[in-house]
Design goal:
Chain lengths: 424, 202
């Protein structure tokens, strides 16, 4: 028989267990409730974050979309990933689908493709760069663009795309071109003026070979008539006639080349050759005024990218100014020394030194101003044009007084990478 | 025998020098060429002939050389050649005694004619100069009394007047005059007067 106390104990234990279960369930429920609440909160928070992100992205997109300059993403092989409306407008596309996914090289003008390719490669190596290039739009319009390209980095730091910000510089290029043409025109007019001024000297220079030809020929005729010379002697004289005819032709050719009109054409040129050409022109005038021209040309100078005729014009201008300056001198040596040298910063330097009376410091600054002339017949454009020619070549023209007497005009011309490549 | 007349050419242009030599030698005249005025002055030894001179040269120009020659009283007729129709320069050259101012390029016959003329002129000038030199030398031989008599004659005075002025006899004046004429190598009174006038002019 089971004792009553045992029943009681069993009953109490069951009750306890039940209470424990109920308490546990209640606690469980509460934790569940808590978790649910936390979950809901988290969800809400996440939603808010997502909303914020979306808003942020939206704002970013809006900025990019409304950005007046072209923003684009592209792959290493030139595939367009994205482009904003400003970019679409540059290439005359109406919708992104027209061009996204295709290659940027379909727009880039052939002459700039390899340079663009090189830039892209550099960007994917982590560098950034700037370049100017020309494109041909879907509608066939030619435009000048300037792009700043930077690498777009992924989460692990690798370059995932090229980010390019590009602007239309067609207007600027056109203005530059207009300016260049204007300068070329001005330089040409001033060359013609200079030639007019030098006409009598050049005529004299031409007269020398013509007179020599006349003398030789008349001499030959007399000797043939009087049979006083041998065949060989006559032939030798005829040979000299030819040399003089060629000399005359050379003078005319160089005048023609000098005054020729046309687009300025920059080519890799030897500065020493340009100096010699200029001196050949200036020499008769120098001799007339009792001025000696001495050359001190550095050997083996690299070529410069320059319009040889325009640089010759600058040298001629400076030399003629020097001759004129020394003309008023009653005493003293009249000499012009032209030096060429390899200057600092990859530049060639040309120095023209005279032994003239020099110039006061006030006039010094003025000589480069237009319409300032020390000559009664001068237009005062020579040095102004000279300076604009040198500056258009990326160089500099200036003057300094000599320690002794006279002035030195100097100009520097940069040697460009292109020229190095060309020379190599 | 007199030294042969030479054509001296001074021009800084080599082709001009050589072609002038060729042309002038074709008429068998001796030619010497110089590249500058200084070179010519160094080498010149007073030979007879003529000078063909370029006006415009570096250093000493043609007109400067003309001046230098005159300074040194070197008598050598000058034919200037020039490439310019430079009128003021031509005027100066001619004023300073140049024979001609020829513009390049020139006709050979014109140049050669001028050269012949210049050479003749040089010979004449040398003769006159020699004569003048003799007159000067002879005049120096006269005594002061003989000079007075000659001066009187030049002034157109008769022997009688001169005798009265000098307080000597007419006969004495006659002797002085005869001596003077002998010393001056004059054949007549008029020749003697001519010589003295020439002397004064020079």
């Amino acid at each position: 028989m089971v004792p009553y106390s045992q029943w009681f104990l069993a009953g109490a234990a069951s009750l306890l267990a039940m209470v424990a279960v109920v308490v546990y369930v209640l606690a469980l429920n509460r934790r569940l409730q808590q978790s649910k609440h936390e979950l809901e909160k988290e969800i809400a928070e996440r939603r808010r974050a997502e909303e914020r992100l979306a808003e942020k992205e939206n704002r970013l997109r809006l900025i990019i979309e409304s950005e007046p300059e072209c923003v684009k993403l592209q792959t290493i092989d030139g595939k367009l990933l994205e482009m904003n409306p400003a970019g679409l407008a540059l290439v005359d596309a109406e919708r992104p689908e027209e061009i996204v996914g295709s290659s940027v090289y379909r727009f880039i003008a052939p002459a700039y493709r390899s340079a663009y390719e090189a830039l892209t490669k550099r960007v994917f190596q982590g560098e950034s760069g700037v370049m100017e290039f020309q494109i041909i739009s879907l509608k066939g319009h030619h435009r000048w663009l300037e792009t700043h390209a930077v690498p777009l980095l992924g989460s692990s730091g690798e370059t995932v795309a090229l980010l390019g910000i590009t602007r239309d510089i067609t207007g600027r290029k056109r203005a530059e071109e207009e300016m260049r043409r204007h300068n070329t025109e001005l330089a040409h007019v001033s060359r013609l003026t200079m030639m007019c001024e030098m006409a009598s000297t050049l005529a004299h220079e031409l007269n020398q070979p013509l007179s020599a030809i006349s003398n030789y020929t008349r001499g030959c005729m007399r000797r043939i008539r009087s049979a006083s010379s041998t065949r060989e002697e006559i032939l030798a004289a005829m040979e000299l006639v030819c040399v003089q005819a060629e000399r005359a032709g050379e003078i005319i050719r160089s005048i023609r080349a000098f005054v020729k009109k046309g687009e300025s054409s920059r080519m890799p040129s030897q500065i020493n050759a340009i100096v010699r050409d200029a001196v050949r022109f200036a020499d008769p005038e120098a001799r007339q005024h009792g001025v000696g021209i001495r050359l001190q040309l550095a050997e083996q100078l690299p070529p410069v990218l320059a319009d040889a005729i325009q640089i010759e014009q600058v040298i001629l201008n400076i030399v003629r100014n020097a001759i004129e300056a020394m003309d008023s001198m009653k005493f003293g040596k009249r000499e012009i020394v032209i030096e060429t040298a390899l200057g600092e910063c990859d530049a060639l330097e040309v120095r023209v030194t005279d032994t003239g009376p020099g110039m006061s410091s006030v006039k010094f600054e003025e000589v480069f101003d237009p319409f300032v002339s020390t000559k009664p017949t001068g237009m005062g454009m020579g040095l102004t044009i000279s300076r604009s020619i040198i500056e258009a070549h990326g160089g500099r023209l200036w003057a300094t007084p000599n320690p002794g007497r006279g002035l030195t005009f100097r100009f520097k011309l940069p040697m460009t990478r292109e020229v190095h490549d060309y020379a190599a | 025998m007199l030294p042969e007349s030479t054509v001296f050419v001074v021009d800084d242009d080599e082709a001009m020098r050589n072609s002038l030599r060729w042309l002038i030698e074709s008429v068998k005249l001796p030619v010497e060429t110089y590249a500058s005025s200084a070179e010519f002055l160094d080498a010149f030894e007073g030979m007879p002939g003529c000078l063909i001179l370029d006006v415009r040269m570096p250093g000493m120009g043609g007109l400067d050389l003309q001046g230098k020659l005159r300074e040194k009283s070197i008598c050598l007729p000058i034919i200037f050649i020039s490439g310019h129709g430079d009128i003021p320069m031509a005027v100066n050259a001619m004023k300073a005694g140049a024979i001609d101012f020829i513009e390049k390029p020139f006709n050979d016959q014109v140049l050669l004619d001028r050269i012949y003329y210049a050479i003749e002129l040089c010979k004449r000038m040398r003769k006159t100069r020699e004569a003048q030199f003799n007159i000067v030398a002879n005049y120096r031989l006269l005594t002061s009394r003989e000079c007075q008599v000659v001066e009187g004659g030049v002034a157109g005075k008769s022997n009688k007047v001169i005798a009265a002025e000098l307080g000597v006899s007419w006969k004495t004046i006659e002797v002085h005059r005869a001596n003077a004429m002998r010393k001056m190598q004059a054949n007549s009174l008029s020749e003697l007067v001519g010589m003295v006038l020439h002397l004064r002019a020079a």
